[in-house]
């Protein structure tokens, strides 16, 4: 069970949001997540229209600030700029489209799925990567995981921090396993929305 996990372990975990999986009202759930002091939160609610995303982002950023947890906004560059928020996480296609235009961001994350994408994202200015999916996960039903050998290759190919994503569960030894592969930690979505 995740609650029995040592709080130390959360320092190597990026919590990825999905309000549809939340076991209680979303902001209440986010406060529980922030109390664990994860490495960061990626507000990934990309199904929301940008205006609604912005409304939610204002609340989540404030909550994260209270607990001194960095909040990475996801996809919506204009929302991040409007809120003067210096942390953004982008899919690779958006990082490509905005190459050279992201100087107003302190942290730029990028999701990658191959060694070539990892190298490209680093060249385009990403300051950290999420690489996956590493383990079997319900989020990618039917797709075989890329595994820890893939993760080792990605970590060897770049000099920026890499966080494993996909099928990671706290308290199972997986965080320690991905760190041994060279990753800085891992990302967890489903469990973080149910703690």
Report on this model:
By secondary structure, the chain is α/β, with parallel strands linked by helices. The protein has a single domain, classed as TIM Barrel (Alpha-Beta Barrel). It contains seven helices and eight strands, in the order βαβαβαβαβαβαβαβ. It has helices at residues 26-35, 50-66, 77-82, 92-97, 115-123, 147-157, 174-180, and strands at 13-16, 40-43, 71-74, 87-91, 107-112, 128-132, 162-165, 185-188. An eight-stranded parallel β-barrel has the order 1-2-3-4-5-6-7-8, surrounded by four helices. β4, α4 (92-97) and β5 (107-112) form a beta-alpha-beta unit. α1 runs parallel beside α2.
Helix and strand layout, with pairings?
Layout: E1 13-16, H1 26-35, E2 40-43, H2 50-66, E3 71-74, H3 77-82, E4 87-91, H4 92-97, E5 107-112, H5 115-123, E6 128-132, H6 147-157, E7 162-165, H7 174-180, E8 185-188
Parallel strand pairs: 1-2, 1-8, 2-3, 3-4, 4-5, 5-6, 6-7, 7-8
Helix pairs in contact: 1-2
């Amino acid at each position: 069970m995740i609650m029995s996990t040592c709080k130390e372990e959360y320092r190597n975990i990026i919590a990825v949001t999905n309000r549809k999986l939340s076991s209680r009202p979303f902001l209440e759930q986010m406060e529980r997540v922030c109390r664990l002091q994860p490495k960061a939160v990626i507000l990934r609610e990309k199904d929301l229209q940008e205006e609604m995303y912005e409304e939610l982002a204002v609340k989540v950023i404030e909550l994260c600030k209270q607990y001194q947890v960095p909040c990475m906004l996801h996809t919506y560059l204009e929302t991040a700029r409007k809120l003067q928020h210096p942390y953004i996480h982008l899919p690779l296609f958006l990082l490509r489209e905005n190459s050279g235009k992201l100087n107003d961001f302190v942290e730029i994350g990028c999701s990658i799925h191959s060694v070539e994408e990892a190298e490209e994202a680093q060249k385009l200015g990403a300051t950290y990567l999420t690489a996956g999916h590493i383990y079997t996960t319900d989020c990618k039903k039917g797709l075989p995981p890329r595994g820890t050998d893939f993760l080792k290759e990605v970590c060897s190919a770049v000099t920026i921090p890499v966080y494993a994503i996909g099928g990671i569960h706290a308290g199972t030894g997986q965080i320690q396993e991905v760190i041994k592969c060279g990753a800085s930690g891992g990302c967890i979505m489903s469990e973080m929305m149910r703690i």
